Amino acid sequence: RFLLFLCTILLCVGAQGLRRGELTIFTGRTGMGKTTMLSQLSLDYCLQGAQTLWGSFEIKNSRLALKMLRQLASQPEEEFVQNFSAYADRFESLPMFFMRFFGSTSLDEVIDAMDYAVYAHDVEHVIIDNLQFMTGMAFGRGFDKFEAQDRAIERFRKFASDKDIHVSLVVHPRKEDDGALLTTSSVFGSAKATQEADNVIILQTGRYYKYLDVTKNRFDGDLGRVPFKFEKATNKYSELTQDEVQELDEMARFEAMQAMRSGGPGGPGSAGGAGQRWGKARR
């Protein structure tokens, strides 16, 4: 259900695949699992036949591919190791391509690689993780960091529109107080990034669980929040059930009441639950 939410609300039209010509921004605090989520999402699209190009500038391709293999297998480590060759053969057959860049890279080189992949392999989904690795070099050539990011966003936006593909772009958030929820305005840089984006997806964290927060969806305005959990055995995310969310929210409310009685910090906001806002919300 977790991937079904993403596919039907954000990036897909029925069963026809990715919405082409769109730019999606993913953001979230460090360690929230943005790369793992995009790995799982891109793998799901590849299994449906979507030609995908990965630009991983923070994690080497070998580590990223191993993460995807674990997700593809969806089996405990012992069984994964025993059947590694079979899973590797299946992964090799997927329409998945990887840029060879790592670390700080020229934006021109990245755009050139994307252009070639679209021409030679009919790529329809490009993932860039993350934008900050492309803005540092421009910053050193006389652009301030906000101007460099705006130029990069503009070029990715134009590429998605001109080539009729979907671009998923990871952008780190600006510094916020610990415990504060991120918003669309929390995306690092000027407002241009979120203005140009068709979709903005934030990975939020509460006291007891994390959740996906869709704060912008230009296609039809459908927004929503989906609590999720990480399954270490398979290296994948799955959606929490309503019963699981209710149980965790009750625990949060109980702790908040105890804190209020003792005069300490508390209340529903600090409890960190998203249960009252669980699921999809119409505009």
Count of helical segments? 11
* Amount of beta strand: 15-25%
What share of the residues lie within helices?
40-55%
Mean residue pLDDT: 83
What does the overall shape look like? globular
Low-pLDDT ranges: 13-17, 267-271, 274-283
Which class best fits the helix and strand makeup?
A: alpha/beta
**Tally of DSSP β-strands:** 10
Q: What is the string of SSEs from the N terminus onward?
A: HEHEHHHEHEHHEHEEEEHHE
Radius of gyration: 20 Å
Major pleated sheet: 10 strands, mixed
Distance between the termini: 21 Å
Subunit organisation of the chains: single chain
3D structure, described in words:
This protein has 283 residues and is an alpha/beta fold. The protein is built from eleven helices and ten strands. The two termini are 21 Å apart. The C terminus is likely disordered.
Keywords:
globular; alpha/beta; 10-stranded mixed β-sheet; 10 strands; disordered C terminus; 283 residues; 43% helix; 11 helices
Question: In brief, what are we looking at here?
Answer:
By secondary structure, the chain is of the alpha/beta class. The C terminus is likely disordered.
What does the secondary structure layout of this molecule look like, with pairings?
Layout: H1 2-11, E1 23-28, H2 34-47, E2 52-56, H3 61-73, H4 77-82, H5 84-92, E3 96-98, H6 107-121, E4 125-129, H7 132-139, H8 145-163, E5 166-170, H9 192-196, E6 199-205, E7 210-217, E8 223-231, E9 236-239, H10 242-261, H11 268-271, E10 279-281
Parallel strand pairs: 1-5, 1-6, 2-3, 2-4, 4-5
Antiparallel strand pairs: 6-7, 7-8, 8-9, 8-10
